[in-house]
Amino acid sequence: MINFLRRIRRDLINENKTRIYLIYAVGEVVLVVVGILIALQINNWNENGKNNDIEKEVLKTLVESMENNCEQLESRIRSIAHYRKYGGVIISVIENKLSYHDSLDNYFWLGLINTGNLRLSNVGYEAIKNVGLEIVRNEMLKKEILMFFEETQPEFHVY
After folding, report:
1. Hey, where are the domains in the chain?
2. Of 36, 87, 100, 112, which sits 20 to 30 A from 12 (CA to CA)?
């Protein structure tokens, strides 16, 4: 193909057909520009595909992190409810002005267990921040993620 185009160009120059040669040259430039534009479009498609894959991966990590946090919170709620029963026995003894005996030691010990030190994971959020929050295309989702991790979740941390 390249030899064919070179031969046409050479023949036009040799025959002094300057006008036709200029049209040919403009056509060649247009072909090059179109080729570059097509290559740029293909590159954009590839980049968008990569960004979609990254977005899916960081959102998947975020979901897993939040699911783990939910499990941790549910476990903590069950523990608090369990230990609350022991505290209820102690309160009942005090309210009914019952006398102390050794069997209450376990109730005192279990009723006073510290259920603090709750640390929720924000691994998924950190992954999104590391990649860049702009990777999330849905503006509403991006806003909710920011609000949850910057305003709501810090309220859950108990030290």
Report:
1. 2-156
2. 36
